[in-house]
Amino acid sequence: ELETEELQAVARCQAVARGWLVRRGAALAWARTRKKVAARRAAARRWETHRRGVKATADTERQLLGVWMASTREVNNAAAAISEEVRRFEASWARHVKRAQQVALAAPMPRNWVPQMDPVTTRPTFLNVRTGELHTLHPNLHKVQPQLEQQRNAAEQSLQQRLLRLRTYAVGVREAAAAQQEGLYAKLKSTREAAARLG
After folding, report:
1. 22: number of Cβ within 10 Å
2. Alpha-carbon torsion 44, 50, 52, 55, what sign?
3. pLDDT tier at 22, thresholds 50, 70, 90
4. Beta partners for 154?
5. What is the sign of the dihedral through the CA atoms of 132, 137, 138 and 143?
6. At the N or C end, where does the chain have fewer CB atoms within 10 A?
7. What's phi and psi for 185, nearest 5 deg?
8. Terminal CA-to-CA distance of the chain, rounded, Å?
9. Using CA atoms, how far apart are residues 85 and 79, in angstroms rounded to an integer?
10. CB contact at 8 A, 25 and 161
11. SS3 labels along 43-94
């Protein structure tokens, strides 16, 4: 009879333990479910706060992007205008020098100058038979050279003034864009902070 009572006691203990495990398992499952639901709700709240912040700042961000794009376009246009000015100047100067040289070479050679061939380099040189001067440059071009240098200096000064105006314009555009962007960044920050307080 003792064995029967022991068996019954063991059976009761096992039943209690099985029930406790089942109850404990259910409690753990509910705790996990509650934790997952809380995490999903927190993620939904964070997303809603983020969405509200994005919605509140979308116009300001669009303005900021527009200012940046417009200023970049203007600065790039100014840089292109600078390089175009330099290219046009160099092409125009080359044409001017070529014309001046053609005019100088078309004129008759001055008296006392004789073309010679350099025996070492086999290049043409010009000898003044009266003074003994020897030039590698044609005498007429030799006279024109100082005038061309003066004209080049004057033309370069004019070019530098035009380029300075373009560079000043580009700097002004950058500064104005920076000031406008600074104001928009401040507006963006305050709008985000206000949206975060509401969330």
Report:
1. 10
2. negative
3. low
4. none
5. negative
6. N
7. -65, -40
8. 71
9. 10
10. no
11. HHHHHHHHHHHHHHHHHHHHHHHHHHHHHHHHHHHHHHHHHHHHHHHHHHHH
| DSSP letter assigned to residue 11 | H
For tokens 């995490």, what's the residue?
39
Tokens of 33: 């479910």
Count the residues in the chain: 199
**Residue type (1 letter), 139:** P
Whose tokens are 């100047």? That residue is: 89
For 82-113, the pLDDT digits (tens) are 999 999 999 999 999 999 999 998 888 888 88
165: left (phi over 0), alpha (psi -120 to 50) or beta: alpha
* Three-state secondary-structure class, residue 119: coil
List % helix, strand, coil for the chain (3-state, nearest 5).
85, 5, 10
The identity of residue 172, as a single letter, is: G
Ranges of beta strands (E only) in the chain are: 113-117, 124-128, 134-135
